[in-house]
Amino acid sequence: MYFVAVIGSGPSGLFAVSACGGLGLADAARGGVLLLDASGAGAAGGGVGGQCSALYPEKPVYGVPGFVNSTAQSLVDALFAQASAYAPTVVLDALVSSVKPLAGDALVNSEPLAGDALASSVEPLAENNSVKPLAENAGFEITAGDRVFSARYVILATGAGRLHPNKLAVNNVDAFERNHIHYCIKDPQRFAGKHVVIAGGGDAAVDWALELLPIAASVSVVHRRAAFRAKNEAVLANAEEAKRLTIYRNAQITELLGEGETLRAVRVRNLATSNLVTSNLVTSNLVTSNLVTSNLVTSNLVTSNLVTSNLVTSDSVTNSVPSDSVTNLVGSDSVTSDSVPRDSVAEEAKTLDIKADELLVFFGLSTAACDDWNVATQCGKILVDPLTCETSVPGLYAIGDAVWRPNKIYMITLGFTDALVATHAIKRSAA
Q1: 82, 26 in Cβ contact below 8 A?
Q2: In whole angstroms, what is the distance from residue 225 CA to residue 211 CA?
Q3: For residue 302, which of 318, 283, 274 has the smallest C-alpha distance?
Q4: Domains of the chain and any CATH numbers
Q5: How far is residue 274's CA from residue 288's CA, in Å, rounded to a whole number?
Q6: CA–CA separation, 222 and 197 (whole Å)
Q7: CA-CA 20 to 30 A from 184: which of 1, 125, 315, 404?
Q8: Is residue 421 scored above 80 in pLDDT?
């Protein structure tokens, strides 16, 4: 029997292992510490790290003392190195489906919840504002797939649960999802020299567009609305390598084009007008506006190659736009971004094919509610004693973002505090 089992290997869970070690709770004579996580062994950071590794490993982390301009993955690596000093048993691909007190009725025994940890097959306790332990702790039996573990104490560090990216909904997405469609970035160098298309309009889409500009062959951003949600959208116009950036507004990806499992292009449909509206941001030839309405380009302003008026009427172009300054103004069912015809515009043109080696999809995340566990809950989270982080079940503790208590602040640093509170309470209980 392990002395402590920690379920969830995000920052709070990793630090809980270190906190156990610092208090002597990880000693082999006691049984040591078990670390369980539903992530696979092939994931970033060796599988540990929770959301930090799975969703934003290269994003900077703020609010952690001593970590300045550090990435989420670097924080995870440091925490894992610290925890490894206490020789925990680490088991990945371990989606916990059952946790049973070794004495008494089953605490948990059902289909897995969409979280790193637990789901309940018995009626949950009514939501309340008090934590009342049920009985003395005699340890727990933990089932994860076909594996069964036992531990004297259990710490739930399951965060917001197991988050899933909202995926691209096109018919042939399965053919390319393994090698060319990405819902998070683990190694930016993978995209060096590639034609990258990014779908989304939030901070992740814009941040990664800017991040990849210096190394990618080209970057195109496709967003289904005219306005972006990202706070730093304006930074796009000032990017030094913006000459390789194209923004498609009011647009949606409808089809992926390629050979076998190799992606070649994405087909984009205009959602607003009869022609696809795009913006091409060029540092040396800045296009401030490309207004396409019923095949009428009212103005294309290029700083070094000033075109005061390009009137496209029916099938003729009055003044042609230099090929090195403005591209991708109008799409058609057979047009690609490398060869937009200058001599005609199809009246019903509504689609455009954009060259793509890699597709990044940032449509947000979804998760299931975690309010059906057989412990006291509040606001869909686990209610704990603020002095011990113990739940309503003796010996079962919860820390980090999985927890609710008065004035709870959801920050990584406060998850570390929870880990210390819980492990000190375990030490007192075991004395």
Answers
A1: no
A2: 22
A3: 283
A4: 2-162+367-430 (3.50.50.60), 165-359 (3.50.50.60)
A5: 21
A6: 7
A7: 404
A8: yes
